[in-house]
Amino acid sequence: MTKRPLFGGDALVRAMILGLPFAVILILIVGPLVLTFVISFWQKTGFTMRPDLTLDNYAAFFSGVRLEVLLRSLWVAFSATILMIVIAYPIAYLITTRLREVLVRPVLFLFAVPFLVNYVVRTFAWSDLLSRTGPINSALIAFGITERPLDWLLFSDFAVYLGLITAYMPFMVFPIWLSLSGIDRRLVEASWLLGEGPFTTFRRVILPLSLPGVIAAAIFGFVGAFGEVAVSLILGGTGYQLLGNAIQSALSVLNYPLAAAISSVSTLLMLALIVAWYQFFDLRLMLGKIMMRA
Predict the structure, then answer these.
(1) d(Cα 209, Cα 176) in Å, to the nearest integer?
(2) How many domains does the chain have?
(3) Is residue 113 predicted with pLDDT exceeding 80?
């Protein structure tokens, strides 16, 4: 009986094929994150920094104005995410239940079209539309709805929320649609046969089974809104500070350790959300249902 070599040709090829993506992830994604976390403990000295092991950067971040920026960023991201889900869920539900199958892909493609244009360009477009001399104010005056331009349309909370929703809500439709498409229709029909109405069926069957997609969409929206820079700067004005702007401000004065500390806190928070989602929901089960129906 001949012994098989310890490292067969097929096993070596498989190891190389699987190892290459992991190596790329470690080098291009995990590596910079680890380096950022290490630099967050360094000390700023003049125009440079030196290796150290200090918590001064985290103390500076969790005190004073920066703590207020963190709390505001959390609230804006949370409330904007709720608004995006309220808009995205009915859209995904209608696509899943009301559209013919031949129209689903074209409609989903329409929601992907905005991502073909850089979101900074789209944000500047909103700035022009909402300005005092923009088309929206001009139309309101022309129709007699208001006598003078509305100042609160731009450089306000309204403008920031509008920018965040239009920037990230279309992307949230996809995971919700994916989750809704994976629901076994026999469960819905069984609820109807047992005498439950549409609302009760939705509340007790459809909504609980679609929660993995809802939570995934919420994470995508929250992460984007939490670290936003362009929307808050262009539509909120220079005084409207979110966490991304705080990082940019630290970088502008060459305080790289403080910027690294703020980035590390943001990254750890996002990682905690992803880990919680992974622990509570089985993504493989949802994808398996989709693959069986395809």
Answers:
(1) 11
(2) 1
(3) yes
